[in-house]
Amino acid sequence: MRQRSSYPEPFKVQVVQECLQPGATVSSVAIRHGINANVIRKWLPLYRDQLPAALPAFVPLRATPKRP
């Protein structure tokens, strides 16, 4: 009988972060790391809150000259 794999927490957070990237799928990330996709799906709600906050996006501001 095969023993259950144990993954370090930083690795789990990294995998969840990869899954949340635009265009990424849980299946593609699972295949890339050799992990069953169902395992990653269990990690998503557990580690989503531990991800670093996204940096604020640059929003262009159009300035108009002040009229006297």
From TrEMBL:
Gene Ontology biological process terms in this record: DNA transposition
Source superkingdom: Bacteria
Record-linked Pfam families: HTH_Tnp_1 (PF01527)
GO molecular function, a single term: sequence-specific DNA binding
Protein name, entry field: Transposase
